[in-house]
Automatic annotation (TrEMBL), chains A, B:
Protein name: AGE family epimerase/isomerase
Family according to the record: Belongs to the N-acylglucosamine 2-epimerase family.
Keywords (A to Z) from UniProt: Isomerase
InterPro entries documented for this protein: 6-hairpin_glycosidase_sf, 6hp_glycosidase-like_sf, AGE/CE
Keyword Isomerase applies: yes
Pfam families: GlcNAc_2-epim
UniProt cross-references to SUPFAM superfamilies, sorted A to Z: Six-hairpin glycosidases
Length: 425, 425
């Protein structure tokens, strides 16, 4: 496997064929292999919600319902309904949306403190409440997407209210809590510095993009935070920095999560496209984040993106550091395609093809559908299940859906003979 | 690599030579490779305590001090001082003991609630307090061992007081907490059953063995709990069962941790030896636990013990399930040797050799000393560091020390022509 930067040259004459071939392959995977897996195996018509823990062939190995994945599946199916209004299978997706939405609203949400559980029993009893805010974020995304799908302003109002709560926790403006509340967050002890985690501004920027309201203050906060993590002088994106942006020389402070950084770059590209980016400074930052993280994260020996690295080359303390996970590859396909679509640069198309070739050669399971989630460093399947506590109906279909959209846009522009970069400016 | 049960036959005439060869190899590793690594690299003469995060060559990659490992290193060095009173290097160990002991007592212990931090900064400021009780357990072991080494009854009294607190939490007899207390344990939610975790009775039985006082009620509780986890009908030891012993058909309830089960079996064997076991029922259970866990946990393809397995063959949800960790191999060497020493059965000697051959072929680092901690399934080094948040001066030297002791005992009995089994009864 070559190093990432040495992608083989591609003749521009092949390009249109390549775009069409990839679009066909991606659509076939999405409609024949991925969505049917979830519709056939995950829907719990008895108790509501979706089963998450599904073995290679769809067999259930646990009844628990993980709320990140409940919210994400609602979002995913609802978004497909809006994105592909003419698809012949749309009615099946549409029926599956309220199954998750009602379960979430009834069982995952805690009215007393606006918090959202992390895990529920099959019947909806709480199993676990995380200290993190991500259950709440995916809950908001599910509600907001359904508000649009069903043209229901009450759902959007609920989504905005929970988002307001999340923001009050993150910005530390909420100080009084009711008696039976369980505030998020860990206590900070005097021996550890106050830090900024990339995950927080990144997910909030993504959530804001789903809401109807306008959040300029929150957006600026997210952008400023992301800038603390992007270090052009190192050509790296750091997962954790001190709250004032200082680099920390500890395993946490040296941690790289290339897939996460690439996802953040993609969110920024999309944000720039959506809101306008007159000086192109967001685009520049986003492209640097994606290119730099692909370069540092790619395994020159066996191919694929490492899960974690230490920026000074120490062994990460995370035991799973060398695994190849499905989601960084999903995010990298979308990010490189979006970068290609926006810049029109062949370099980005070559990056897309290198990621997509590895991804399609290793993750799909033609026999039972969906993708394997966890490979060892050499690319062998390490965990055979298709759904687990952190893997559900989300990253694979979302990546395939966005890839289909970006490929379609690039093909349209080719037909029109437009260089996308010129079109934008 | 053969399956575990197919160990090659060994002629009894070779046995005495084998015992001596192994003892020599083990002593050389302990004195030349392992203890010097920690004495040369871990001692913080400036702030006290021990550095834990040491790269392959001993270089520090983080200053944080993990309290499990602080307590364990105090225990280890103090026990070596007592076990090898004539060793020429003893003075260096003896000087390193108070370095950790004073740091622990001054910085790790919280007088307001008798809890013990999980992690401290180099200077001793708190970094993290776990919800688990293991920091407290290793703190007690450190104090008790030092009480013996220094003949200091105050230290033993402190150890017994903290143990009393741990017991009050585990048995839920402590109900009122001071204002600024942080009780251990997670809240239990209605959707998840009350469970028993093997780790708790196992570590408590180990801690009780270090104390001066008599704890018959606590010992009986530990034995009864361990019995819930040992399932002769399955020939398995389960990490987690319902509090009433019911099997749980969930990933948690199906989880096997062979190294942990083998360690528990060894603690039981030792407990039976120490306290007397007139009907031999503890010994029978312990030997079943060790033999069953070796059989199920051994990787027939690449050798070595898996970290985690699912008893019904699903992929464990733990991403690191297939790694080969140093400590299960350490525990398995001691457990098989103890089983051989107690039963005199050649089968156990063969099991020891199979484990020890794999272990010595893969984990030691002749170049820089100590052992690698984490190998991938195929046996390649996955994490090159020698010390990390969960690996310190403990499992390797403890295993080598006990192996030396058991080999010495077996050799003494051979010289006397005694079958150990006959001697015991």
């Amino acid at each position: 496997m070559m190093e990432f930067t040495e992608a083989s040259p591609l003749m521009p004459t092949d390009l249109s064929t390549s775009l069409k071939t990839w679009q066909q392959r991606i659509r076939q995977e999405l409609w024949q292999q991925v969505i049917p897996f979830w519709l056939n195996h995950s829907l719990d018509w008895q108790w509501g919600g979706y089963f998450n823990c599904l073995d290679r062939n769809g067999q259930r190995y646990d009844d628990k319902k993980y709320v990140w994945l409940q919210g994400r599946q609602v979002w995913m199916l609802a978004r497909l309904c809006r994105m592909y209004p003419e698809h012949p299978e749309r009615q099946r997706w549409l029926e599956a949306v309220p199954l998750g939405l009602h379960f979430l609203r009834r069982f995952a949400y805690r009215p007393q403190d606006q918090r959202v559980y992390f895990c529920l029993s099959r019947e909806g009893q709480p199993v676990y409440l995380q200290r993190k805010i991500f259950s709440e974020c995916f809950y908001v995304m599910a509600l907001a997407e359904c508000a649009r799908l069903f043209a229901d302003p009450t759902l959007m109002q609920e989504a905005e209210q929970v988002f307001a709560a999340i923001w009050s926790w993150v910005s530390q403006s909420q100080t009084d809590w009711a008696q039976d509340s369980i505030p998020p967050g860990r206590p900070r002890w005097p021996g550890s510095p106050e830090v900024s985690e990339l995950a927080v501004p990144m997910i909030l920027l993504n959530v804001i993009g789903e809401l109807a309201g306008s959040y300029p203050e929150q957006e600026q906060w997210c952008l400023a935070r992301i800038r603390l993590h992007h270090r052009p002088e190192l050509n790296l994106v750091l997962e954790t920095v001190a709250a004032d942006g200082t680099l920390l020389n500890t395993p946490e402070g040296r941690l790289l999560n290339p897939g996460h950084a690439i996802e953040a770059g993609w969110f920024l590209l999309e944000y720039g496209e959506r809101t306008g980016d007159p000086e192109g400074s967001l685009q520049t930052m986003a492209l640097e984040m994606i290119a730099g993280s692909l370069a540092v994260g790619w395994d020159a020996e066996y191919g694929g993106l490492f899960y974690f690295l230490d920026r000074q080359g120490y062994s990460p303390v995370q035991l799973e550091w060398s695994l190849k996970l499905w989601w960084p590859h999903c995010e990298a396909m979308v990010a490189t395609l979006a970068a290609y679509g926006i810049t029109g640069s062949l370099e980005w198309w070559q990056r897309f093809e290198q990621v997509a070739n590895y991804t399609f050669a290793h993750f799909p399971d033609p026999e039972y559908g969906e993708w394997f989630g966890y490979l060892d460093r050499q690319g062998q399947v390490s965990q055979r299940f298709k759904g687990g506590p952190y893997k559900g109906c989300f990253h694979v279909p979302r990546a395939l859906m966005w890839a289909d959209q970006w490929l379609g846009r690039a093909l349209d522009l080719q037909v029109q003979g437009v260089n996308p970069q010129n079109k934008r400016r």
